[in-house]
Amino acid sequence: MNKKLIEKALKLRDEGFATAGIADELNVSVDTALYLILNGERLLTQSEEKAETKEKNIDIYVEWDSIKMSSKRLKNIALIMADMLKDVEFDGIVGISSGGVPLATLMSEHLDKTFSVYTPKKHLHGNKKSSNLEKTCSIMDTGEFVIVDDVLTSGKTMAETIKAIKCCGVPKKAIVIIDKSGLKEIEGVPVEALFRVGTVEVSKSE
C-alpha cells in the first residue's frame, strides 16, 4: 500500500473532508477512500510487503498534480481533449464538479460552446440532494452536450450526470483524462479517454 497515499487520506480526514471528497482528491473509489481512513494508522505501522500480501481488492491511485497545478499544462490537456471532439456535433459542455470543471471551462472557451457545471449528489448535503436534478435543468439550455471529468473510477458519478442531463437535453459523449473503469459506454453514452489504465496479474518466474 502506498504510504504517501495513506498519509494524504488521513490528513484530508483530519482536515474535515468527507469520504467522497477524499476519494475525489486522491482519485480513488469511495470504497478505497473509506478503507484508507478507517485503517490508515494500522497500515502505516505495517511493512509495505505485509500490507500488499493482505490486500485482495486493488484500486489504482492516480496523481496528476504536476498537470492540474499548472494552468499552461492543464490548458494543453484541455486542447487535446477538445481535438478529440472535432467530429462530434454538440451545443455545450458540462463539467463534473470538481475535477472536470477547469477542463470544461478551458474546452468551452476554445470551442466556443456553452458551459455548465454538474455537482454530484455525493458533494451535496441535506435537502440539496433532492433539488440537484431540477437545478441542473434550470441552468442549462436544451441541446446536445459533452460531459467532461478528470478521472473515471467506477462510472457511478458519470451515470448520475448523464441521467441528469437527459432531463433537459441529449448527452452526446463523455470524455475524461484517465479511465480506470474500462467502460466504453455508460447509460448509452460513449466514453472517450486520453488514457485507460488497468491491472495485469503476473506471476514471478521461478
UniProtKB/TrEMBL annotation:
CDD domains: PRTases_typeI. Pfam families: Pribosyltran. Keywords: Glycosyltransferase, Transferase. Residues 64-180 form the Phosphoribosyltransferase domain. GO terms for biological process: pyrimidine nucleobase biosynthetic process; UMP biosynthetic process. One of its GO terms (molecular function) is orotate phosphoribosyltransferase activity. This is Phosphoribosyltransferase. It comes from Methanococcus aeolicus (strain ATCC BAA-1280 / DSM 17508 / OCM 812 / Nankai-3). The lineage of its organism: Archaea, Methanobacteriati, Methanobacteriota, Methanomada group, Methanococci.
